[in-house]
Each structure stands twice: as C-alpha cells, then as structure tokens.
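For reproducibility, we list the full input for the iron/sulfur cluster complex.
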Amino acid sequence: MLKCSICKRRNAFYVRRYSGERLCRKCFSESIENKVRAVISKYNMFKFDDRIAVAVSGGKDSINLLHILSKIEKDYPKASICAITVDEGIRGYRDEAIKIAAENCEMLGIDQTVVSFKEIYGYTLDEIVEKTKHKDLTPCAYCGVLRRRALNIAARKAAADKIATAHTLDDEIQTFLLNLFHGDPFRTIRSGPKFTSKNPKLTPRVKPFCEVLERESVLYAYVKGINFQETPCPYAGEALRNDMRIYLNRLEEKHPSIKYTLYRSIEKIREAIASRVEETPLQSCRICGEPTTSSICQACRILNELESK
Ligand code: SF4
Ligand code: ZN
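The corresponding predicted structure, in tokenized form, follows.
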C-alpha cells in the first residue's frame, strides 16, 4: 500500500491528480480545512468579531462549510456563527434537506433560522414554476433571484456581518463561463469570492469554499462521516450549466489542474475589469425598498409578473 505523501506514515486512499500527491484520510481532510483557512485570509473575508451567517441548504458543500467554519471559529472567541436555510418550497425535496441541515446545526450547537419563499413572497417555488411554465426562464432563474433576496433579509434580521455561501471552485468557473455565454462578462466583478457594497442594506457575501473542488467536497463529507442530502433538486440546474459541468469535468480528467488554471485566469480578468468598470450605484427598490441597481428590483419584477397571472 502506498503511503501518504504528507505524513509518510498512513496509507494513502486518494490521489490528488492536480498536485500529484497521495493522501491519507487525515491529511486529505486537513488539506481541505487549510485551503479554506488560506482563502479566508487571502481575501480577508472575516474580522475577528464577525457574526457570520452561513447559508445552509443541506447539500454537501454547505454542510461541510458549516462544519469547517465552526471549527475555525473556535480560534476566534469573539466571532459567532448562525445558519440560514431558505425553504424555497419544493415538494418532496426541500423538507429532507431542512431536516438534515437542522440535525447538523444541532450537532454543532449553531442556531438555525429557516425562512421560506411562501412567508416572504406568498408563493412556493412549486407554485411559481406552475405559474410560469410557459415562460423562457428556468425555475433556477426565479429561484436564484428570490433566494439571494431571502438570504439578505434573513441575514439582516440575524444581525450578521457577513453571509458565507458554499460555492465551490467548480461553481465559480461554471458561473464565469455562463456569464460569458449570456453576454454579461462584467457580472464577474460581482460574483467573486468576496462581494461588498457601500449600501448598508446589502450584507457582504463571502465564498470560503471557492478554491475547493466539488469532487473533493464530496470526499470530505464521506471521510468525515458528515450527513448531507444526496438527492438533487427536481428542477436541478440550468441546462447550460449542466453542460458546462460535464465539459469541465471531462477536461479536468484529461488535463489535471486545468480547473485551477482557469480559476486563476478568472481572478486576473476580474481584477483587470474591476479597475476599469465603475460599481453600479445601488438605489432602493420603489416597491420593496431593498437595494437594487434599477428602480424596481428583480424580485419585485418577478412578483409583479406572478400577480398579473
Ligand atoms: Fe433552486 Fe435550481 Fe437550486 Fe433547485 S437547482 S434549488 S430550482 S437554484
Ligand atoms: Zn423590490
């Protein structure tokens, strides 16, 4: 049996192809935790006394993030963590995820707030999908806008200083390519590892998992025996994003480390365009008062559209 390239003592169980390392379970999970610590410090994501609201869906990435942040937080006694779970209202899917999220929060001693689309907007996602089924937009397009809004409202209520989401490196590179394919390259500025706005109503967002591969996130959960929801959302993913995921996985298979190379290029592109493009000033939505770049926010536009049905 081959030995771990880091500790040289324990048996290796995983070959990290992009670095050539062979890792034992312990060194592997520590490497993921160290990666998260390094990203937090590289992007200066937190202050020592931040109240961090972790967006916990119940899927592997968000549950892992919750476990790792709660471990890191022990070194910062003035910091605190809470969890926010958004219940979009997806029958037969979300209930199990909420239960798993709640069990993990309880195990870690973290307060969990559940906010639902139904209570905030008056509709579940299932109802929205039913009402909009002849439209071009996918369920994810509605869900994404409304979930971001719900998270921001819940984070403000929880007096959180930051919202931490569990986007992985795979999510980041897919999003970058999607922005390009949708003809909106400048959106990349707002979708980086750390987004802060001058508007106090918009809680800053950070992505401490942005340099962790999705594949290694699954492995981390298995190694640590973390329970997460495995069934995918019935509306799962935009078609284009799925194509991108498959294509990038194939590329990584053939050319290990290509995802990291692409990620580094995106960082450089983001830096270059951020210095040339002015931040769009935010105003208050004429209907709901939430921060937005136009006079009526996207969430209210969606709600208007639903009400006119
Ligand atoms: Fe929402 Fe789409 Fe995610 Fe399902 S897959 S929870 S519809 S964004
Ligand atoms: Zn609005």
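The chain has a mean pLDDT of 94. The longest strand covers residues 80-87. Both points were considered when choosing residues for closer inspection.
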